[in-house]
Amino acid sequence: MRNLHTRTTRTRVVGALAAGLLCAAGLAAPAAAAPAASAAPAASAPAEGLALTPPMGFNNWNSTHCRAEFDEAMVKGIADIFVEKGLKDAGYEYVNLDDCWALPSRDANGKLVPDPVRFPNGIKAVADYVHSKGLKIGIYTSAGTKTCNTAGFPGSLGHEYSDAQQFADWGVDYLKYDNCNNQGVDAKLRYTTMRDALRATGRPIVYSICEWGENKPWEWAADVGQLWRTTGDISDNWGSMLSILKQNLPLAAHAGPGRWNDPDMLEVGNGGMTDTEYRSHFSMWAIMAAPLLIGSDLRSAGEETFEILGNREVIAVDQDPLGKQGTVISSQSGRWVVAKEMRDGSRAVALFNESGTAQRITTSADAVGLPAADAYALRDLWQHRSYNTAGTISATVPAHGTVLLRVAADPRSVQHPPAVELGLNRSPLAEAGKKTALTSTVTDLGRTTAKRVSVSLTGPSGWSVKATSPTTSPALSTGRSLRTKWAVTAPQGTPPGSYGLTLKASYRSPSGVRVDSALPLTTTVVVAPPSGTSGLGDLPWLSAANGWGPVERNTSNGESDAGDGNPITIGGVVYGTGLGVHADSTVEYYAGGACETVTARVGVDDEEGADGTVAFEIWADGTRAASTGVLTNAMPAQALTADVTGAQVVRLVVTDGGDGVTSDHGDWAEARLTC
């Protein structure tokens, strides 16, 4: 959920006054802002038919916040790019203005006033320009006395009917209605009042309810708005995206045409994640039937960003008119299978790897809800290739990657080449100068035979990569594998870090079509852990993912920049060493089979006051070796010890306690590894 102090330019202040106190303060309660009841019948405007598929478009907030570059020129520029780059043709429709478009004060008549510096020609002129491109325009305000920005722009609480009419007069097509400064007025009342005000205008306006999921709008807002935020704000990092994904996935039953779960805008192209992570972000939003609102400044975006955002096969999953949100089939150890029923009877299937190393993720046609068949068509929506499978749906998925497929029962699929899976027997970790043994597999998943199969493994320049068993097979029938052993050696003196390996396979279909497949992998050159007991705050980690801000060494988590934490403090006790994290968090260390125990004192940092609930886990390779229950800020530090004997990798995990990620600052105080 939201973290109030992480948005330095968008502080969210939620008042504690009741509606009666709002009136006592001289402000009209929401209902008093309406005209006579006869002037605003619920059916006065056609709410039906809006957002029958998840809205697609752009919102400036993630890329500009309230900075000066958010202005008329930017909005027009985005509309131009939608047309020029084919995004309009791909389905993107709305160009939405977020906070900071207005002056801080209303005019003498109580009307909203566009900022004359940002929008010298007013909002209607901008709307007219956007409409001239065959697009639609959206605007923002809050269901409170002010919006979320600290400058204090006017909100619509008590002004709903007047503001809604202004928006309609300007030609607005979409309203994002935030939750700041709400004075404690009941959420259902506030959001329903604006619904009625929008309908009273007679203009069809898509209504986006942005109350951060605090009052479970998925349970009551289906007849109020067309979409509702299910979480706090997204941030441009892996941990934030992953946390929001996990909160939105369980809500699938509430989504459908005209009623969408909204896990917040896209961060694709903003620079805080890798292209692999952005493809996962886009894939998972699509399979969740989430609104696709671009959050990057397309005027400076690279081609890879446009390639991701413009993938029409992925967009088709999101926009499927059946309107189903994907459901979780399995989620063991960070290996997710999510399947979405499509109108044509096929299934979109996401094989999503949340972990920091490549993982084999597998399911079946039966498990994702397809009928029994001799063969199935399997379409890879990022490779844009079609295959046949006998029923197994499986892939080795890179760290933080997603394989997105569309699968259908189809006897004609045997005309396509058989699907072939590439994989390694384990995560490739290597100590410089020492030989590492790996085994690759090439497996025929198809109903037909893969012929003339060959495999190769390549590494960085100067590395020794040698096959020690056969690299070819004349044919692989359904379910059969070519297993090849390799000896991989990084040169002595290779610095610790991540290096690329590429596993490639080539084969031919029964009709002679050649297929070349490649699996990019990452090998990590590691340093053997020192003998004795070492503080984990001082050891190098293999990977670190965090819900907000970076993982901090020997301080608490400050949520923004590295080094902005405070002394680790749990229950009034200050600790000089450890790790400061924010749920959801995972930190991995190389143990090399030489370590025995991990110990720590764990809990919620005192800096969060009474807020925060977390749970701690220690994993030894794929086995959970120790865990706590849910811990709150009221609890003192808990001792946690795990036997990690023989483990190659030790993983420290902090989850959110099951209630969202508000203020979930977890401390691994005095965390130590004994080897």
Question: What features would you highlight for this structure?
Answer:
675 residues; alpha+beta; eight-stranded parallel sheet; six-stranded antiparallel sheet; 11 helices; 33% strand
Protein model, in words:
The chain is an alpha+beta fold. Helix content is 15%, strand content 33%. The strands form 8 sheets. An 8-stranded parallel beta sheet has the order 7-6-5-4-3-2-1-8. Helix 8 (238-248) runs parallel beside helix 9 (275-287). The longest helix is centred in the N-terminal third of the chain and has 14 residues, at 187-200. The two termini are 38 Å apart. The model is unreliable at 1-47 (pLDDT under 50).
Strand order in space, largest sheet = 7-6-5-4-3-2-1-8
- Return residue spans where pLDDT drops below 50 for at least 5 consecutive residues: 1-47
Number of helical segments with 4 or more residues = 11
Termini separation comes to 38 Å
- Main sheet? 8 strands, parallel
- Kindly state the percentage of residues in helix: 10-25%
Give the CA-based shape.
globular
How many strand elements? 39
Radius of gyration: 27 Å
Strand content: 25-35%
Structural class assignment: alpha+beta
How confident is the prediction overall: mean pLDDT? 91
Secondary-structure map:
Elements: H1 19-24, E1 56-59, H2 61-64, H3 72-84, H4 87-90, E2 94-96, H5 122-132, E3 136-142, H6 160-170, E4 174-178, H7 187-200, E5 206-209, E6 227-229, H8 238-248, E7 260-262, H9 275-287, E8 292-294, H10 303-309, H11 312-318, E9 327-332, E10 335-341, E11 347-353, E12 359-364, E13 376-380, E14 385-389, E15 392-397, E16 402-409, E17 420-424, E18 429-431, E19 435-444, E20 450-458, E21 464-467, E22 472-476, E23 481-489, E24 497-508, E25 514-526, E26 533-535, E27 543-545, E28 552-553, E29 568-570, E30 573-575, E31 578-582, E32 585-590, E33 597-604, E34 613-620, E35 623-627, E36 631-632, E37 638-643, E38 649-655, E39 665-674
Helix pairs in contact: 6-7, 8-9, 9-10, 9-11
